[in-house]
Amino acid sequence: MLNAIIRLAVERRFMMLASSLVLIAAGLWSYRYLPIDAVPDITNVQVQINTEATGYSPLEAEQRVTFPVETALYGLPQLEYTRSLSRYGLSQVTVVFKDGTDIYHARNLIDQRLGQISDALPEGLKPVMGPISTGLGEIFSYTVTADSDARQSDGSPYDAMALRTVQDWIIRPQLAQVAGVAEINTSGGFEEQIHIRPDPALLLQHQITVPQLVSAIRRNNSNRGAGYIEVHGEQQLVRAVGQLKSIEDIRDTVVARNGTAIVRIRDLAEVTQGEELRTGAATRGGSETVLGSAMMLMGENPKEVAEALERRLQDIATSLPDGVTTEVVYNRTDLVGKTLATVQTNLLEGALLVIFVLFIMLRNLRAALITAAVIPLAMLATVTGMVQTGVSANLMSLGALDFGLIVDGAVIIVENCVRRLSASGSALTLRERLELVYSATAEVMKPSLFGVAIITLVYIPIFSLTGIEGKMFHPMAATVVIALLSAMIISITLVPAAIAVFLRNGTGVHHTEPSGASSVESKRYGYQSLYERLLRTALGVPVMMIGSAALLIVGALILSTRLGSEFIPQLDEGDIALHALRIPGTSLQQSLDMQVLLEERLLTFPEVKTVFSRLGTPEIATDPMPPNVADTFIILKPKAQWPDPERHKADLVEQIEASVRELPGNNYEFTQPIQMRFNELISGVRADLGVKVFGDDLNQLLTAANAVAALLNSVDGSADVRVEQVTGLPVLTLHPKRQKLAAYGLTVDDIQSLLSTAVGGQQAGLIYRGDQRIPLVVRFPESLRRNTELIKALPVPLAGGGFVPVSEVADVILAPAPAQVSRENGKRRIVISANVRGRDLGSFIGEVQRRAMSEIDLPSGYWLEYGGTFEQLQSAEKTLRWVVPATLALILFVLVSAFGNLRDALIIFSGVPLALTGGIFLLWLRDIPMSISAAVGFIALSGISVLNGLVMLTFIRQLRDQGVALRDAVIEGATRRLRPVLMTALVAGLGFVPMALNTGIGAEVQRPLATVVIGGIISATTLTLFVVPVLYFWLHRRSHNKASLSR
Amino acid sequence: MMYRPHTLAICLLLSLSLTVHASGDHEHEEGHGHSHGKEHGHEGEHGHEHEHENTTKISAAMATANGIRTAIASSGTVNATLPIFATLVVPPQQEIQLSGRFPGLITDVRVAPGDSVKKGQTLATIESNESLSRYEVRSPISGVISDSHAASGNLASSEPLFVIVDLSGLWLEIPVHPSQRTQVTAGQPVTLPAHEISTQIESIAPPAHGRPFWRARAKVPNPHGDLTPGEVTLAHITTAETVAQVRVENRALQNHEGNTVVFVHHDGEYEARPVTTGASDEKFTEITAGLNPGEEYVTDNSYLIKADIGKSGAAHQH
């Protein structure tokens, strides 16, 4: 069948070439739809359900919101697990589905379930699902600022509230409409509110209660339609207006009548513009600001969306009030552009090198160009394939592409055709030439196809990776496989067709040697004779050759244990993200003050372009942080603008860290923007071992957790033992005295609602200003609600007139309370995390489990679970333990089926360890740690080395089948195959050189891979050229001798 | 059999390249980024720095930049106060409901509501029904006519004709609920912040009218007559006046590991000193143990010291 394809390609060569236009068109069209991002998205399929529960403490939020929501989700199809977080004013349930679940379907189901429990939730609370976005979703951030001399229409300068109003009602509605945007999230500033602050003394004096006040506002703030009337044939609508429009209107609202006197709100309360009780803030460059962030819809193209957002933001600028400006502070396009530029440079330079090598080796420009043409065509086919299979383009997926590898198959075919054409002379008829191209292609097609098939096969272990590793590397493996397969198809269709059309003879236009040489031997180049001589020598000392190769392998194995190791090289995003952490209980304002100092210090670094931060929880709680945590983004200038452009970023980070550590009260975690989001969203246990204690009572849980922590500390090899911090939030709790309440005829609700209105505030309606809706909030004056003593003195009105102070009917106690309640799969839990140093993980965990079983005494209803990265590690190890040998067996099977001979297959296989030695040596020389990227390099390497051996051995066998003597066949075959072997090795190796040397953004991810391949190819090629023939000779000589003996 | 070592080596290497790297995993993941190793080093130093979890060092420049200010602990008075919403009332003897002694025809009314009257001033003349003689109704006190039902030609009965109030001095009636009763005694100073008036408790009357609170009374002078009877205002009663050996500003006090502490500054080092507190007022708190007079303690931004001492425990939890 394959022969038929080649036959067709050669016969219908023009049609074949024309079909490449279709391929090009499809590729270009697909490119527009190819999602491009910097890194693969490793977020799991998750839905966040946020319920804003204003004023609810962590315990109430858990009991009244989180629990019903969690319970409602039981039994969802494809559900992996749920986890939840209950904090002050917020309940967040994260539902994680199995990979591959359709997110829209999942959201639909959740929506249905949430609809059913709406009655079970406290009135007014509504669970909302988070934006349909992923960890890579936050692609664009901007700040809203005002010039210092800009004035609002009433003459006052713009404050945080005015800027927030601009953001909420001018900018956000417009940006939210940009295609591909899931949500515009806002941090900082204050939502505008109108506050009615009653003086409790005046309320008492006028005998008016807070509910009366609230209902007075509610009853005086609406428009109502009253149908229509017909007047002389005309229809006139009737309506009664009554909406409050201004602060003055509110002040004049009548609350009650006291004798003949009318009591208005102005007699009872101060009415003023006020600040919401906010849960988050934002700063930029050392002052408070309003920060907007765009979340991208899942599956959109970040580059396009960010660009569209930037354009729209520029359009909006014209509609902003004078003096108010927006500035983009983070744009994913920058990073995508930079990484893409790195990848492009690498690929382009690699492609040029490949063309150059081809030309030098083939001495034929046309042949070189035909081979090189495979690169763009395979690339376009890959793009089409990626779009069709939903693989996104990023550093990982594009980074592993090596054009040398892609053209390998084509190189072998072109080389053989060129060789045969030049051997046969120029006097060929068209039919003869076509026949020659066909047979030359068919001759090497099998090894070339097998080679590609083997390279494809070695990627299989990567597909077996699951979880985060899988998400990281599947796109890469998929891309490489698509590229290889398309290159393979091109090399047996388009390539022979192009050879048939463009190559009239093997020498090509620039060939100066006289054509018409009749024998292959006469076409030898100098390097071939040199090689032949060396090979003859090597064949004389086979044992030494094989022995030294084995030594090298052993040496490399020993060396490999000395290499450092990391999971994947971290992509340098170019910017720094910094968690500034303060002790729990720190107020937002205190945090803000500390953050301002921190930012000012960061700005003293000349490398820093700008700094902005988000404190606490933004409007949409995609990342609910308590007020004591701030995400600080440090945007660096391009390196060219640094005082010392040569400086390493790690060095700068170190200096920054040393500098900010001098600031009191802050603890830090350095990371990068995207990395940070990933950590937040994936949010499993980020340590080797996480012991989870499940149970009901928080104190009991904490006791158990501390016991576990003590146990962990006593186990050999434990490090960084840490108990999840759940307590420490100072809470002023009001405990009603029921007897007293009864004596006064009061209910618990009376004092609860008094307290909640006094301190937290109560919404009493809205004021409409155009589209803008301004909440009317009844709350006691600041001087009262801030003072514990005065809260105790607050009068609780009695039914028969008069009052009692709060302290009379309730105890007010300040005590630390849970800062947050975490749950997993519907049960409270505390995590104790630990890392393991200097001991193997398996035995450590075994000991912990054994000792926990006997030493930790848990009450009934409490249990321990073990998790952490050790799980991933074990599962990955388990998978790889059978997948890797299985893959190797599969390759062997392919080789055996190619040769019908296990021995020859194993000889070819020997190229693999030989290739690995060079890779390990070069890694060691460049001081690059082992990583999955490097491992992928080894995978590619084993493919290439097998390919080389395959090509060489096939030819030797062909010669032997023709009856050539063993030694001659080995020498002749090896020598004749020298050129394609060298070519495939050189193109594959040189193709990676730019990648190995590049220092641009994103290069660090590709560098190990490229280094491994280059090192490996050097060793594999030299060794394949000698060891494989020697091995073949040595092994076959014995059987040869045996055969002759028996004869 | 010759090839077995090779195959083994291959298997080993490939599994190595993949599994070793899967195990690289944990190294990376528990760190928070590229600077993990360094960070670790810092944590180490950090732990060393705060060997005794109760002190921290902050340079003088850094303290100034962060607005950390200190004061010297000294003796002084601490006035414990109790805030209660109280009502201004007219003392009974200063509010007169004036009626005619004998029913009769009102023949003459000389004053209208709002008029000031002197003691003994004639307000109206009534012709008695029985004797038909006229008698004058005189004001028993100096004050203001707050209400009048008298009109010439009306018949005066036992109903009051005039209400005369004397606003020159009012009473502050402070409801003292049972739980507060023990704290309040006669003679204690009372301030009304809304009117900048200071006075003291005159007497404490037992509960009446079935209302379960005692009524402490304080005289409130009203020389300008601008206080309104019936007004409810917040009164601060000084329930105890303590002369403290050591007192600190309230903002210096922080909760640290379950104790009330002040941060004592000595030579760039700040120490969380557990203290026992005594009486407390709006500004100062008495320290009965833990702090000596003359020691320098942090007033402004004391929270920052607490945050700095506790910062190693500040972690990012999701």
From TrEMBL, chain A:
Belongs to the resistance-nodulation-cell division (RND) (TC 2.A.6) family. SUPFAM superfamilies: Multidrug efflux transporter AcrB pore domain, PN1, PN2, PC1 and PC2 subdomains, Multidrug efflux transporter AcrB TolC docking domain, DN and DC subdomains, Multidrug efflux transporter AcrB transmembrane domain. The keyword Transport applies. This is Cobalt-zinc-cadmium resistance protein CzcA. Its main location: membrane. It is a multi-pass membrane protein. One of its GO terms (cellular component) is plasma membrane. It comes from Thalassolituus maritimus. One of its GO terms (molecular function) is monoatomic cation transmembrane transporter activity. It holds the Pfam family ACR_tran.
From TrEMBL, chain B:
Residues 246-306 form the CzcB-like C-terminal circularly permuted SH3-like domain. Residues 98-164 form the CzcB-like barrel-sandwich hybrid domain. One of its GO terms (molecular function) is transition metal ion binding. This is Membrane fusion protein, cobalt-zinc-cadmium efflux system. Residues 1-22 form the signal peptide. One of its GO terms (cellular component) is outer membrane-bounded periplasmic space. Keywords: Signal, Transport. CDD domains: biotinyl_domain. GO terms for biological process: copper ion export; plasma membrane copper ion transport. InterPro entries: Beta-barrel_RND_2, BSH_CzcB-like, CzcB_C, MFP_Cation_Efflux, Single_hybrid_motif. Residues 25-53 are annotated as: Disordered. Residues 170-238 form the CusB-like beta-barrel domain.
